[in-house]
UniProtKB/TrEMBL annotation:
This is Thiolase family protein. Signal peptide: none annotated. Transmembrane segments: none annotated. The lineage of its organism: Bacteria, Bacillati, Bacillota, Bacilli, Bacillales. It comes from Psychrobacillus psychrodurans. It comes from the Bacteria. The active site is at C89, H338, C368.
Length: 383
């Protein structure tokens, strides 16, 4: 099998909904990342075989195959194609998987995989409109929203509101500490955003993390989905704007071009899970990818499990026996935000840079997805 390597990875800083990136079109934001990615890698845009981007709310400015339009905006030659995919919150992680599979099969040599989402300009579910869930589907499964799925998970695993809020408070503290220490500086591409007075300002710092997000403060928030429940805006991921991407190629092509890869992709998995509980998929996806890799959870130096809601990583920890100290050590989506289509490669980029910073070898990424699915990826840093 052809070895697939990651040569470079970048992301924008993540903007709060209606925040710093509110006036930035998603296609133009993705173009910034695509341009920076190839420039950092020192690769000719003409040599890219495909651009695969994840985007969940494909409507308005995010419609009409945003991967293609973003590549054209970024001055990629017209022969470089683009395709946009939707595997819900794991869309850009799935983009990585599709890209890696194309390279591993010998079909392509160099592929960009990434994602973008402006939850300000194209609000979540705006592409659904008044469409109702199929009656035939409802006859087979109980279809509820993710908030209620979260309440069911909390009950099934006997978690408390205090546990959720404690985890969420720690996510903010870790993210703020990571920002202060400059952990994200290398991975972020500056975005020039226009101010109210017409001047430009370079946006380089994630907006989501909040000082003072203590357990006491979070404990004062009201439940959102069930008045007697425990899921609040404080222990759920933030709606956000952002873009991210990685450059993948065969090891042979990297050697030909004189490039030094950062990591290799060891194994990939995708799985379906209970569409009612919906968010438990990372557990089985993790077991599956570890089995494929011939590794154990103890072999991993770090892991990113997307914080869609606080109970997702907490239940994942319980079921996998993973080390809490290795989980989302720079904070997660509760603090840093969750720009749906961009989150997969955003987390991968952060994990890649963390492995370099700590001298780690293996990293694992897992993301839960709407309607009950999950992807998992294991990478190995190359010395």
């Amino acid at each position: 099998m052809i070895e697939v390597v990651i040569v470079e990875g970048v992301r924008t800083a993540i903007g709060r909904r209606k925040g710093a990136l509110a006036e930035y079109r998603a296609d133009e934001l993705a173009a910034v990342v695509l341009d920076e990615l190839v420039n950092r890698a020192g690769v000719d845009k003409a040599d890219i075989d495909d651009v695969i981007l994840g985007c969940v709310t494909q409507i308005g400015e995010q419609s009409a195959n945003i991967a293609r339009t973003a590549a054209l905006i970024a001055d990629f030659p017209i022969h470089v194609p683009g395709v946009t995919i939707d595997r819900q919150c794991g869309s850009s992680q799935q983009a990585v998987h599709f890209a890696a599979q194309a390279i591993a099969s010998g079909d392509m040599d160099i592929v960009i995989a990434g994602g973008v989402e402006s939850m300000t300009r194209e609000p979540m579910f705006s592409n659904v409109g008044n469409t109702k869930v199929s009656t035939k589907l409802r006859e087979k499964y109980e279809i509820i929203n993710q908030g209620l799925s979260s309440e069911r998970m909390v009950q099934k695993w006997s978690l408390t509101r205090e546990e959720l809020d404690k985890y969420s408070s720690e996510s903010h503290a870790k993210a703020l500490d990571a920002i202060e220490k400059g952990h994200f500086e290398k991975e972020i591409v500056p975005v020039e955003v226009q101010q109210e007075d017409g001047s430009l300002k370079s946006f380089t710092t994630d907006e989501g993390p909040r000082e003072g997000s203590t357990v006491e403060v979070l404990g004062g928030l009201k439940p959102v989905f069930d008045e007697n429940g425990v899921i609040t805006a404080g222990n759920a991921s933030q709606m956000s704007d952002g873009a991210s991407a990685v450059l993948l190629m065969s090891r042979k092509k990297a050697d030909e071009l004189g490039l030094k890869p950062k990591a290799r992709i060891i194994a990939r998995s995708v799985t379906g899970s209970d569409p009612t509980l919906m968010l438990t998929g990372p557990i089985e996806a993790t077991k599956k990818v570890l089995l494929k890799a011939g590794l154990t959870i103890e072999d991993m130096d770090t892991y990113e499990v997307n914080e869609a809601f606080a109970q997702v990583p907490l239940v994942w920890l319980k079921e996998t026996g993973a080390n809490p100290e290795k989980l989302n050590p720079d904070g997660g989506a509760i603090a840093l935000g969750h720009p749906l289509g961009a989150t997969g490669t955003k987390l991968l980029v952060t994990m890649l840079h963390r492995l370099e910073r700590i001298g780690g070898r293996y990293g694992l990424l897992a993301i839960c997805e709407g309607m009950g699915m999950a992807n998992a990826t294991i990478i190995e840093r190359i010395e």
